[in-house]
Design goal:
With 217 residues, this protein is mostly helical. The protein has twelve helices and no strands. It is elongated, with a radius of gyration of 19 Å.
Length: 217
Amino acid sequence: MIRSLEWLALTKIATLVYNDIELSEYLKPKGMYLISADLEKLDPILKKKVWSLDLPLMIKKKITVQMRQLKRETKNWYYDHKLMFKNDLFRPTKFVWKGNGTIDRLKTAKSLIECKSSDISKRFQMACVYWLEEETKKLWDEMNETARRDLSATRMSYYDCRRGHAVKEWITLLKSGVVDWRKHSFSPPLFWYCEEEAIIQGNLLQQLSPGDHWQVL
């Protein structure tokens, strides 16, 4: 879909306004909670920021409308990552946005992974799910033995199947000393992992063989 220059400009302003607030102060998901109520609380805050801009009234109204898409994107992001967050404080303070008003999932994941004030075990899991090889190896090396043991002993729930398998397989790979993950025999096969919404938006899809690519599509 070809977007107009006005639409792109409005989206850019909307994302700048959206990222001007400290999201972690307002969005506090718990377990399967989908943050709808928290997002509604953001409405008056966002509206106040938009209306404080030195722009024509009509433009302000259009930016306010664009905010709806950003809220949907935020809700979808949390829905796809809900089992990784649960009740802890590991969540974005800001998202990385694309020009079309969607969240750049890979860059947002990398931003979270690089945040040293966050739990290293959660950062490691995020790196595994997004198939970020260098980050996964680096965080595993930095983790203490207790954190490694706890991660290795974590039991997977039915709902966390593919994501949990990805983390377990990366741990197995790292323990084995295999340098190149492409030489590791993943079980189930790689295309199976791509049915997970978070995984398919990471690095794995572009690394698949033509045969596995066909299985995904």
